[in-house]
Structures are given as C-alpha cells and as structure tokens.
Amino acid sequence: MSKSVKLMKTLTLSTALVAATATFALAQENPAPSQDGGYGLGRTALPEEIAAWDIDIRPDGQGLPVGSGDVWTGEELWIDNCSVCHGDFGEAVGRWPVLAGGFGTLDGEDPVKTVGSYWPYLSTVWDYIHRAMPYGAAQSLEDDEVYALVAYLMYLNNMVEDDFELSNENFLEVAMPNEDAFFMDDRAETEYTLFTGEPCMENCADSIEITSRAMVLNVTPEAEEEAAAEPGAGAEVMPAAEETVVEAAAEPEAPAGPDPELVAAGEGLFRQCASCHQIGEGAVSRVGPMLNNTYGAPVGSHEGFRYSPAFTEANASGMVWDDANLTAYLLDPRGFIPGNRMAFRGVRSEEDAAALIAYIRAEGGDHE
Amino acid sequence: MTDTPKFTPSRRQFLAGAAVATGAAATGKLVHAQAAGPDPAITELQPWQQYLGAGVDAAPYGVPSPFESHVVRRNVEWLTADTVSSVNFTPLHEMEGIITPNGLCFERHHGGVAEIDPGQHRLMINGLVDNPLVFTMEDLMRFPRENRTYFLECAANSGMEWRGAQLNGVQFTHGMIHNVVYTGIPLRLLLEEAGVRTNGTWILPEGADASAMTRSIPMEKALDDCLVATHMNGERLRPEQGYPVRLVVPGWEGNMWVKWLRRIEVGDQPWHHREETSKYTDLLEHGEARRFTWEMDAKSVITNPSPQAPITHGPGPTVITGVAWSGRGTIPRVDVTLDGGMNWHRARMSGPSFDKSMHRFYYEFNWDGRPLLLQSRAHDSTGYVQPTKDQLREVRGENSIYHNNGIQTWAINERGEAENVEVG
Questions:
Q1: Which of A139, B252, B270, B323 could form a disulfide with B216 if both were Cys (CB 3.0 to 4.6 A apart)?
Q2: What is the pLDDT of residues A186-198, one digit of tens each?
C-alpha cells in the first residue's frame, strides 16, 4: 500500500469523524420547520367550547362572571364543603393548608402563609376555588357559591364584617394586605454575581466541622424490606412464582368471597373516597374515619374520630351500617343524614353503591 | 489528602494492602486478594445454567430483575396531607448514566393521576389569537416534531433541607428530578397555527386533571424552546407524567410543565394563579417574596456513596459518582472534595452533554478508610458556580422553601456508612 493511499484513508476517516461529530452536535438544534400560514391542522374552536373551558380569572377581573354571595351563605357552604380539611375557621386539619390568620408572621421564624397574610390577589382565590375545589369534586360549585366562599374567607381573615356581600361589582375594590410584598425574580442581580468566578481549590478553610446531622432528627422513612437486595437472598426470591401457584391451588377451599368483579368495580369507585378514607391493613382515620370494622357496626363508632353532631345523633339513635342504610347513605349522603360533614355528593346508582360496599367488605370493612 | 494518580498505589495504600493481603511480596506491585477456597458460585452448577428460562411470551412488557425490586420511587408520608396531592422521589442512588427510566421518574400531582382516554382528549388554543383552534391527538401527530433531552426538577427539590440536614438519603434530598428524552411538537408551531396577536405576550397552559393546573409563561419562552410532548424515552408519556400530552418548559421549574395539557390561552398579562402566588414564590427573610423564579440554578449531588448507598467494600479503589444540571445551559465541570471543602479535585464528566440536561460525573480514588466529608460543586456554561447552603441562606434566609441548590455534604465514617450532614 502506497503512502498516499494510506494518507487518503486517514483523511477520509477524519473527515467522516468530523462529519459525524457535527451531525451529533446539530441533532438537538435542527428545528422542526414552520410553514407560512400554518399546516392547516386542527379545527376552529366553537364559542360554546371556549366558554366551557375558559374559566380562568385574572387580577384585573377578566373572566369574572356576574354573581354575588355573602359571608353567612359562605359560612354554611364552608362547613359543608371545606371545613373537613381546612377547619371551621380556616385553621386547617392535619397538614391541609391553613387559610386564615398568620398576619405578621412572614418575616418571623415560622411564617404562616394564608389567603389573608400572603396571597396577593383576591382573583386567585376565586379562580382556585372555582377550578379545583371542593377537593375531589372540582368545578361543582355555582358561581354565587364561589362568591360566598370567597366572602367567608375574607371574613375569616378580618378583611370584612359579617354583613359583607362580594359580587362582580365590588370585586375590584378589594386590595389584599400583602399585594405589595412580591417582587420580580432578582437572582440575576443579587446572586449570580456572588456565585460566579473561579472558586478556591486548595486549603480553602482553616478548619471544617460538622454543624448539623440528619440522624439527630430521624425523620427519614425506614428502608423497605431489603431481602431482594441482599446478596445470597436469591434463593428466597426466585420461587415467587411457585408460591403463587400454591396459593391459587388452595383458593377453592376458602369460603366463598364476594363477587370479584363487583369488588374490582368498587375498587375503581373507591378512588373518589380515598382522598379522605383509608381501608385495609394499617388504615387510620384522616379527614374521614378509616373504614375497617364498619359494615354492620353502629354509625359513627370509630374511636378518636371527631364526628359531626349529626353522626353522634345517629349513633345515639342506634343506627347501624347495614346494607340498606349504607346504600341509602352512599346514594345521598346529605339527604340521608342531614348535617353530616362528608363532602361527597353521592354515587350515581344502586349498582355503584353495591360495588363500593363489596369492596369495603372485601378490604376488611366488616364489623368484628 | 494527597491527590494521587487514580488506581496507582500510594505508599500508604501499599502498606495497608500489605497488612491484610497474605503473601504480599515487597515488590511494589498490586496484590490481589487470595480466596480461602474454591468459590461455589463457580464450582457448583447454578440452576440458571441447567434449567431453561422463561420464553419470549413471559413478559410482553418487560420489567427489571426481581433482584432490583427495591429500586422504586418512594414518598415521605409526613410531608403532605394526602398521597393524591403529594410527591414521590426518584431513587438517584440506584441509577447510572443520565436518563431516568420512565417508571422511576418522580411524581408530583395535585389531584391524583388523571386517567385520560386519548381518543377523548383535546388541546385548545384560545385567547389573543386570530383563530382559536382545537386539536385531537391525531392532529398533533401530524405536526413536525423534535427529540430533546431535558431535566425536570421540582422547585421544592431539597426544600426540606433549608434549616439544616434533615432527610437521610439522596432519594429524599434530591430525588424530585428526572431526565428524559422527549418527543414533542415545538409549542411555537401550534401558536403559529393559531396566529398569536401582537399583544399576546403571555400564555396560560392548563391541565385536564382534577386540579386543572395553570401557570403563566411569558411568550418569549413559549416561542423559544417549549415542547408539547407526547413521548418520553421512546414510548408514550406515562399517565403520571401527563399522558397523553404534557408541556415541556426546558430549564424551568417542574410545576410549569403542565401535565394532561388540555388548553393554552394567550393573554397580555400574567394570571397570578394559585401556583404562582400562594405556592412557588420564594419568601425571603425580610418577609417579602420573589415571584416568577422560573429558572433552575446549577446544582449537583453525589449519588454514590450516599446514606442509602454506603461503601461496603472497605479501603482501596473507590468510585464516587453523581449528577449535575443547570437550567441555564450545560455543565462543563464539576469539582469534588473529600474533606468537606478544604481541597477540591476536578471530577471526570462522562456521557452526553446536552443543554438543560442532566450530566454524569465520576471521581475515582483510593480510599484509605478514614472518614470523609464528600461534596460536589457544579459549574455551568454561564460561569455560575453552585453555592454552599450558607451562601444561599445569607441571601434568602431559611423560609423560601423553593430553589435550594446549595452544595450537599455526605459524611462517610470508617465503616463506609454515609450520613446527610452540614459543615461549617
């Protein structure tokens, strides 16, 4: 092979290498092309369609519908729909958001950021309640109801008296106490200059000591069962398939359980309940009572749960969660036990109620 | 600690090695360990050597080995009121390279995972446009699309660490991040299709889930590099990541990447919705708050060793690895310290370096078995250098929750166990 051929080959190879590198570098920057006048894809949105989805409200009032609501109406709606998570006075249950108070805390050690102490615009309150609340039943409130709830939140935050009525007419007159305490991101000016430049690489301190340790707090979740991770534990892991076979074979001897299809349907439906209720092993009462040991038990009998007066009364009357009562309650929670605190409008049909009951019973809901 | 060449025994290592290795000759050569007897893993016939394995129909959608079943997203129960408005964490300590597998991408949603029938999903563009439009998924797939790799980091990642070391594991301190190859339509093309009016300076993307998530995004960003993504890492988006379509807002806080995207409104001012007022604003020490802190600053963390992934092999050759990223560019350099920041060494970058994507770094050294204080420090392509937590606190105080990109310290003891600590 002559020298020139060799050289050629080397050249070709390096050219190819350069080309390949260039393609690689360009790969992320080769933009999808625009087309003059667009691609003609999609169709024009109809006014009714835009009206159905365009629900956003701005601080200047854009999007705000005609309507009104007063503090007293708001309080009633609040007790029924909101207090279960946010507390009767916006003080919150568990780790749900605190919505009232917190004034004068923002520059302290434990700032409490509420609608009154922190939120800069009232329109945000209206928009958010309307689009996402009550939790698990979004967009179920009428416009006037949203006005009333916003009015009640203003009352809880000492912004208005109890005779106040909020409407689209007076909405823009409201100024939020903390509106002026927000400013545009200024990291480019206040931080980037501080955090730029060649840093120290050698002998950067006189001494270095540990000042804080996570082990002291001990709030990290425990490690999972680590059997699978441990070397040598393979023998226990591999026969998993066999165990399943054994269980399946043993099943016919077990007493006949509930209809699995009904239970599966109930499991799907239970997602509506799961934001407030737990069931099964390790279940605890949260926003709603846990549901183990419920079917066949007296109404309102889970110890430690703070029941509504309506439930306490039902308990005293001797009402029991039998099939008929549970079905009636699931179909119409507010109609069946008026004044109770469950923020759920009810299932759609008796079939759905039956599926939910089957699921609850299958998960350990039976009274012991 | 001296910066000895990697994997060549220093005088000290050699002596330590000689003390434990039997039959070590004073030749200056590396001494390998000697087995006490034959290894049954070699001398005994293993079941998988003898019996036939599963057929090709056993796992139509493949899953990891059962020996990897501990590699999962995990949540911290006490953090939030309820799992349907909560977060779980990517197991960074179990991962390599730069891509996060779809099933391990951390989840954050505000009203649970919406389960959407793509045949019933619509994307609407309305507001200050010449022609308000509705697209089906089929329409969207007829637009030209692009493939780009980006990290998504929740603004609250490391938010629990403002007041000091709290959670003992990189999964919990840094796991609200994932890095994914997206396939998507440039948002610019969809906006051009509708014809943005000259006064259209902001957009409001909105989700179809029960929280109807909304965020205001300036038009400049929308036209620059945002994608309307349908695929992640080569397959359709996972339900928990916004199936069938999500917004990709490169380099900006994860909350803005609206999932289950159903609508984009064009407007002439921001909407100041809940997630950009009550949440995702950064309260500073004097009681005032920064708003619209969109960009994610450069950050890095050592993923191994870390509290969930201790050094188990004792002294000798040891690999330190970690990840780094910046919302303002690439990461050309990461420094690593073994002594809490007294002396720093340049780490070795490995793998693709994409704009606003995760980068992988390594630092290999001979551990002498003494305690270590490990840190990493990212430099991004703008010249920004990752600050210490104390430097951040000096500017922001301790109550800003979001955007904690301070340097992380792991204390390693003689047994190789790691703990989340802070140094000063």
A1: B270
A2: 999 999 999 999 9
Residues B180 and B224 in one domain: yes
- Asked whether residue B257 falls in the same domain as residue B140, the answer is yes
What pLDDT does residue A317 have?
87
Binary contact (A50, B67; C-beta < 8 A) = no
* A117 near B CB under 8 A: no
The dihedral built from the CA positions of residue B102, B106, B110 and B113, taken in this order, carries a sign that is positive
User: How far apart are alpha carbons B131 and A95 in whole angstroms?
Assistant: 44
Cβ separation A33–B343 shorter than 8 A: no
| Same domain, yes or no: B305 and B273 | no
Say if residue B4's pLDDT is above 50: no
Q: For B31-80, what is each residue's pLDDT tens digit? A: 898 999 999 999 999 999 999 999 999 999 999 999 999 999 999 888 88
Domain that holds residue A349: 260-365
Tell me, yes or no, whether A49 lies in a domain: no
User: What's the pLDDT at B98?
Assistant: 98
Chain B interface includes A126 (CB < 8 A): no
Same domain, B385 and B264: no
Q: Looking at this protein, which amino acid is placed at residue B164?
A: G
Q: Above pLDDT 90, what percent of chain A?
A: 49
Cβ of residue A138 closer than 8 Å to a chain B Cβ: yes
B284 lies in the same domain as B324? no
Check whether residue B229 and residue B319 sit in a common domain: no
Residues in A touching B141 (Cβ below 8 Å): none
Distance CA B330, CA B348 (A): 15
Judge: B386–A34 Cβ closer than 8 Å, yes or no.
no
Q: Which of A39, A45, A210 is closest, CB to CB, to B423?
A: A210
> For residue B385, what are the CA distances in angstroms to A160, A257, B349?
49, 63, 16
Residue B24 has a pLDDT of 40
B171 and B285, same domain (yes or no): yes
* B70 with A228: Cβ contact below 8 A: yes
Question: Would you call B135 and A32 a contact, using CB atoms and an 8 Å cutoff?
Answer: no
Instruction: Find the domain containing B416 and state its range.
Output: 299-421
Nearest chain B alpha carbon to A51: B126
B407's torsion region: left (phi>0), alpha (psi -120 to 50) or beta? beta
List Cα–Cα distances, B350 to B97, B130, B306, B384, in angstroms: 8, 47, 20, 20
Same domain, B277 and B315: no
Give the HSE-up count for residue B55: Cα atoms under 13 Å, Cβ half-sphere.
1
Q: How far apart are CA A23 and CA B172, in angstroms?
A: 38
Q: Answer yes or no: is B313 within a domain.
A: yes
Burial of B276 (0-12, 13-18, 19+ CB in 10 A): buried
Q: Is the pLDDT of residue A348 over 70?
A: yes
Question: How many CB contacts within 8 angstroms connect chain A with chain B?
Answer: 289
ipTM of the assembly?
0.90
CA A148 from centre of chain: 24
- B27: distance to nearest CA of chain A, Å? 33
One domain, residues A171 and A267: no
- The answer to the question of residue A287 being in a domain is yes
What's the pLDDT score for residue A223? 66
Closest Cα of chain B to A364: distance in Å? 21
Average of per-residue pLDDT across A226-244: 35
| Domains: count for chain B | 2
* Out of B68, B124, B373, closest to residue A49 by CB: B124
Sign of CA dihedral A275, A277, A282, A286: positive
Q: Is the pLDDT of residue A18 over 80?
A: no
The whole-angstrom distance between A37's CA and the closest CA on chain B is 7
Question: Where residue B321 sits, what CATH number does that domain have?
Answer: 2.60.40.650
pLDDT value for B74: 95
* Cβ–Cβ below 8 Å for B81 and A220: no
CB-CB: which of B143, B204, B272 is closest to A124?
B272
Question: Does residue A287 carry a pLDDT above 90?
Answer: no
Q: What is the mean pLDDT of residues B81-93?
A: 90
Shortest CA gap B83–chain A (Å): 8
Is the Cβ pair A45, B134 closer than 8 Å? yes
Check A223 against B262: CB less than 8 A apart: no
